[in-house]
From TrEMBL:
Signal sequence annotation: none
Membrane topology value: Multi-pass membrane protein
Major subcellular site: membrane
Segments traversing the membrane: 97-118, 183-201
Family from the record: Belongs to the membrane-bound acyltransferase family.
One GO cellular component, as annotated: mitochondria-associated endoplasmic reticulum membrane contact site
Keywords (A to Z) from UniProt: Acyltransferase, Membrane, Transferase, Transmembrane, Transmembrane helix
Superkingdom of the source species: Eukaryota
Places the protein is found: Membrane
Protein name per its UniProtKB record: Lysophospholipid acyltransferase 7
One GO process term, biological-process aspect: lipid modification
Entry GO MF terms: lysophospholipid acyltransferase activity
Annotated Pfam families: MBOAT
Length: 216
């Protein structure tokens, strides 16, 4: 950072991994980029952003209520690269297949230890469970109850992170499976249950007024 790596003027609205998203504004045909030749060193520091190499949004990581949101705010520069060059370019139209491929690459990026793959390849189950439960339950809840539901989701989300994190901590296949077995694979059973429960919840139809409005 002292060498200016990833430093761009605030006007360019830089994003993690991507860099500038806007061109530097010009005044009377002169580009003012806040360089040291134009401004003092103190002003230079104030007018440049290091957002391009901003890698972790701690608050969002700690308080996100979903796996997807947590992953987007962790290792953000790498997430941008993987999303841009792997997820969006994967030769599959199916969203779940693209997510599986993306997480497979993420696991390989971390290393070849089996634990990485055990963790990352369970993430699609977590995302699927979160999305399905939210779509099935939230339409029945008031805004106040939705607030409590989000905290409920946050609690289970972090329990799943702790459970799946065994792969990162133990790395090898046998110790990881032994750890999960000692917990009776409860995390996997809960994820599968959360995926299946929405099948038992009838979809909530719109109110009569909304139905009439759509028909009119």
């Amino acid at each position: 950072m002292m060498l200016g790596l990833g430093a761009y003027p605030f006007q360019t609205d830089p994003k993690p991994g991507l860099g500038p998203t806007k061109s530097v504004p010009e005044e009377n045909g002169i580009v003012h980029d806040g360089s040291p030749t134009e401004q003092s060193e103190e002003t230079y520091k104030d007018t440049h952003s290091f957002e391009t190499i901003h890698n972790i949004n701690i608050f969002e990581v700690e308080f996100s209520s979903s796996m997807g949101s947590t992953m987007k705010n962790w290792n953000m520069t790498v997430q941008w690269w993987i999303a841009t060059y792997i997820h969006r370019k994967a030769p599959f139209k199916n969203r779940n297949l693209r997510m599986f491929t993306t997480l497979l690459v993420s696991a390989f990026w971390h290393g070849v230890a089996p634990g990485y793959y055990l963790t990352f390849l369970c993430v699609p189950l977590t995302v699927m469970a979160e999305v399905r439960m939210e779509k099935a339950i939230k339409p029945y809840l008031s805004p106040k109850l939705c607030y409590f539901y989000d905290w409920f989701s946050w609690f289970f989300h972090y329990r799943s992170m702790e459970y799946l994190g065994c792969g990162f901590m133990l790395l090898q296949l046998a110790p990881c499976l032994k750890a999960w077995k000692s917990m009776y694979f409860i995390g996997h059973f809960v994820l599968v249950a959360f995926i299946l429960i929405p099948f038992l919840i009838p979809k909530k139809h719109g109110s009569d007024k909304e139905s009439q409005k759509k028909l009119s």
